[in-house]
Amino acid sequence: MELQINLMHAMLLWVIAAAAKAASQTIKPDCEATCGDVSIPYPFGTREGCYLNDDFLIACNHSLSPPKPLLWNSSFNLQVLNISIEDHRLRIYTFVGRDCYDKMGKQYDQPTLAYANLPRFPFSDKGNRFTAIGCDTIAVFNGLNGADDFTTGCLSLCNSIRSVTNGSCSGIGCCQTSNIPKGLFSYYASVGSFYNHTKVWSFNPCSYAFLAEEESFNFSSADLKDLQNRTVFPTLLDWAVGNKTCEEAKKNLTSYACKDNSYCYNSDNGPGYRCNCSSGFQGNPYLPNGCQDIDECADPKRNECTKVCINTPGSYTCSCPKGYHGNGRRDENGDGCTPHDDQLLIVKIAVGIFIGLIALLITSSWLYWGLKKRKFIKLKEKFFQQNGGLMLQQQLHGREGSSESVKIFTAEELEKATNKYDEDTIIGRGGYGTVYKGILADGRFNVN
Ligand SMILES: *[C@@H]1O[C@H](CO)[C@@H](O)[C@H](O)[C@H]1NC(C)=O
Ligand SMILES: *[C@@H]1O[C@H](CO)[C@@H](O)[C@H](O)[C@H]1NC(C)=O
Ligand SMILES: *[C@@H]1O[C@H](CO)[C@@H](O)[C@H](O)[C@H]1NC(C)=O
Ligand SMILES: *[C@@H]1O[C@H](CO)[C@@H](O)[C@H](O)[C@H]1NC(C)=O
Ligand SMILES: *[C@@H]1O[C@H](CO)[C@@H](O)[C@H](O)[C@H]1NC(C)=O
Ligand SMILES: *[C@@H]1O[C@H](CO)[C@@H](O)[C@H](O)[C@H]1NC(C)=O
Ligand SMILES: *[C@@H]1O[C@H](CO)[C@@H](O)[C@H](O)[C@H]1NC(C)=O
Ligand SMILES: *[C@@H]1O[C@H](CO)[C@@H](O)[C@H](O)[C@H]1NC(C)=O
Ligand SMILES: *[C@@H]1O[C@H](CO)[C@@H](O)[C@H](O)[C@H]1NC(C)=O
Ligand SMILES: CC(=O)N[C@H]1CO[C@H](CO)[C@@H](O)[C@@H]1O
């Protein structure tokens, strides 16, 4: 019975794994997964039938090497760098505005404007900064935000290249504004100067301005010369689906973009909604079966089980092996796995036997040594008797008050008195044995 269940469980796992492998792709079948080195996950796509709607068209120009992905179509000229379906961000290149002068303070080339006009997807309100570079520079940023247009700007001045600090855009050689507002789809930025760069021309002939991802640019004094020939910078966009809220979109399930095991949330920057895989799932929430179960049991960091972990769709359960009880969890509500009482009894008995054995060992060895000592004493008594010690004692006792003049010494007393039978204490050797001279512990002098 148990074997059968285990076998079924194993087969189920195998089926799930196979399904996960088949659907682990983030694109529709028969659609391009990449353009150049940029991956194009659904809802974006390069061909009719591969994208969700026209908002998600990526025009891939294959005649270039490497192929170049452009957002919407080539008339917008917005090169795509990254598409993320996890944080719903899109990274594109935007152009640098510049205004350059010759030594005499005459503008050369036409000044270029930094601008972008997006019909869909606003600029990310977090992570983008408007930056201007120059030592005779005033920059103005105009955001076209429907009714409430947004204007900001900054001023950057300096007298010598020594006064600028690498990495600092605080108005000396470089200036930066704080984050831009939400819902900004278009902007243009212009740069101007006070003295046509005549006072700083030797090290700074141009002014520059651009909107860029904050991390993509570190100011250095070398930028004052030619901005190291950069003409574009990465900029972040926040993308979303359509212009409806989740509630409105859910009314038409044929057009609703969030598929199995996903949930919907409204965009916090501009109109539209977004999809995320439900907790316990990962993958592409815009594809049917795109959100795949996470096997929490395979990763010890993802589960709280102490002994047995069983993966379930979107979650997992903990249990305890046979002979144990508890919920098998190690979080604050968990009590782990403890052995059953009968199991506990076995453990107790085992410990009892162990302690008993040790006690037995101690007592038996104690008895053994005790017996040995007694035997020794008996032997001593026997020798005492054999050598007429008893008779001597009786005779001595018979004589009144004579215990003072004659005394039977123990072997230890004799040994001490003769200084361990030292040669120097020998008085003479006779037929009954050697005669030693000894001094008793109480000072009395004796001869034996
Ligand atoms: C691809 O890029 C080349 C060079 O910029 C251009 O001439 C061509 O028109 C582009 N093709 C498409 C389909 O946009
Ligand atoms: C690009 O898209 C816009 C609006 O979606 C359209 O007006 C224009 O004709 C398209 N251009 C090309 C070259 O497809
Ligand atoms: C959606 O998922 C992303 C990345 O996994 C996460 O950063 C974001 O907080 C999620 N959004 C919501 C509303 O749960
Ligand atoms: C600065 O340049 C502009 C355009 O080239 C010119 O009209 C203006 O006279 C110049 N001003 C100075 C102070 O050189
Ligand atoms: C800018 O500098 C920081 C540290 O100062 C560094 O972590 C980052 O990678 C640099 N960015 C670029 C684009 O060089
Ligand atoms: C600033 O950086 C440039 C090049 O990145 C370097 O040549 C210059 O010495 C640096 N200046 C300081 C003050 O570190
Ligand atoms: C910028 O371009 C000019 C001319 O094309 C070149 O001389 C210079 O070395 C380039 N600068 C950098 C930093 O690449
Ligand atoms: C929402 O988008 C649809 C098509 O994309 C368009 O026809 C409609 O006018 C838009 N509605 C609003 C309120 O912007
Ligand atoms: C639901 O969406 C589909 C596809 O966009 C469309 O063809 C259909 O007319 C819509 N139904 C309703 C009731 O709006
Ligand atoms: C998250 C991600 O895909 N980042 C990539 C964005 O594009 C740049 C350059 O094309 C890559 O270096 C990043 O790894």
Quaternary:
single chain
State the end-to-end CA separation. 95 Å
Mean pLDDT: 81
Low-confidence stretches: 15-23
Total domain count: 4
Percent strand:
25-35%
Rg over CA atoms, rounded to whole Å, is 49 Å
Major sheet strand order: 7-14-9-12
Annotation field: number of helices = 6
Strand element count: 26
Give every kind of bound small molecule, once each.
2-acetamido-2-deoxy-beta-D-glucopyranose
| Amount of helix | 10-25%
Q: Briefly note the structural class of the backbone.
A: alpha+beta
Strand count, sense and barrel status of the largest sheet are: 4 strands, antiparallel
Broad shape: elongated
What's a quick, concise take on this entry?
The protein is of the alpha+beta class and 448 residues long. The chain is built from six helices and 26 strands. It is a single-pass membrane protein.
Written description of the protein model:
It is a single chain. The protein is α+β, with helices and mostly antiparallel strands and 448 residues long. It has six helices and 26 strands. The strands form ten sheets. It has a four-stranded antiparallel β-sheet. One 2-acetamido-2-deoxy-beta-D-glucopyranose binds next to loops.
